């Protein structure tokens, strides 16, 4: 049975980082393994082709080319299944439940093999502090279906507000998606000018931070910031950004992270969360674009002419 059958469920459900962290770990590593399947596709600038897409039931890779056809992997976070379908009509799944990362990834590749997909990935996790290969990560991890469902519903709601905001922009954008390396949903605007990655940037950063941008996103928290939050940053960071006035009133500049933060619990407490999140996106974009001297013509009305 689905965990959530209420069609009027709260679009901004509660999510506590300390309670979610165990489930988050299993989801993060499992979705990294799924996301790495997309690396077989041709590279697109700033990694625009590799995110997982937020769907009506969870997350999906979208079609991945294979053997003259395609396959697709879905993480259904209502029925809590990992599903693989192919253009030849095959469809197989397994239940998402408490298990080790090693077991989860082994089940994923057994699932792929069962529908005739023979592929491999680099089993070293990306963009995390530890380097334990997936197949050696044998500690049993919890999977709380309700919290996994809440996490996805927040992604879905965040995407909805992002889509409202991005209609005003006339420049280059990327599809909204879940960056499985850092496990955050993000939206990015570019002004068309190149940028230089930091001298110590790794392979991922060199190919991500090579253009001027403003980015927004949401993540469920980390050991360094142990609560869910929305963020916004401008790259390269322009002088004076930290003093910009942004909305809503609960949004603030975090000097350690070098970005604006809006804590998720503050948004949940709002009488108008969608409007407040839209204000956060608008005001932080205005701050970044103004301080970085972006062309004002990049911002339009968001309406067809």
| Number of H/I helices | 6
Structural class, by secondary structure, is alpha+beta
> SSE string, helix = H, strand = E?
HEEEEEEEHEHEEEHEEEEHH
Taking pLDDT < 50 over at least 5 consecutive residues as the criterion, the unreliable ranges are 1-7
Biggest sheet, in brief? Answer: 7 strands, antiparallel
- Radius of gyration over alpha carbons? 20 Å
How many runs of DSSP E, i.e. beta strands?
A: 15
User: Mean of the pLDDT scores?
Assistant: 94
Percentage of residues in DSSP E strands: 15-25%
Question: Helicity range of the residues?
Answer: 25-40%
Which word captures the global form?
globular
Total separate domains? 2
- How far apart the termini lie comes to 47 Å
Give the topology, please.
Elements: H1 17-36, E1 53-54, E2 58-60, E3 64-66, E4 69-76, E5 81-86, E6 91-95, E7 99-100, H2 101-114, E8 140-141, H3 145-166, E9 172-173, E10 177-179, E11 184-194, H4 203-206, E12 211-219, E13 229-235, E14 252-254, E15 259-263, H5 264-268, H6 273-291
Antiparallel strand pairs: 1-2, 2-4, 3-4, 4-5, 5-6, 7-8, 9-11, 10-11, 11-12, 12-13, 13-15, 14-15
Helix pairs in contact: 1-2, 3-6
